[in-house]
Amino acid sequence: MKAPYVGRTGEPLVFEGYASDFDRRITAIQLSLDQGEHWTTYPVEHADADRWVYWHFAYTPREAGAYRLKVRAVNDEGACSPSPAVHAFEVLD
Asked: InterPro entries of this UniProt entry (predicted)?
């Protein structure tokens, strides 16, 4: 995952990366900013099992503090990545 380590409130931060499930097709990328309690799903179209899926996500924080973004892939059988990618970052005023 390519992501910033520091950002500012009210300014967008862009996160991006690639996902693959080797022999399965990726159908969605899920993101969480609350330790995985809730996941936001972004469908992936036109993916196939032989290619990595590029994803990007822009987030504009409203409050300063420490954050952890979790990202996982969902395959065509509905299975999620067993260990989500995690990125910690700080938001300043």
From this structure: Ig_E-set (IPR014756)
Residues 6+ apart with CB under 8 A from 10: 60, 61, 62
Q: What average pLDDT values come out for the chain (93 residues) when binned by 10 residues?
A: 95 96 94 97 91 94 98 97 96 97
Sequence-ordered list of residues with C-beta below 8 angstroms from that of 22, at least 6 positions apart, any chain: 49
Encoded tokens for 59: 């987030």
User: What would the CATH number be for the domain defined by 6-91?
Assistant: 2.60.40.650
Q: Would you list the DSSP string of 29-90? A: EEEESSTTSS-EEEE--S--TTS-EEEEEEE--SS-EEEEEEEEEEETTSPBPSS-EEEEEE
Query: With the C-alpha atoms ordered 26, 31, 35, 36, is the resulting torsion angle positive or negative?
Result: negative
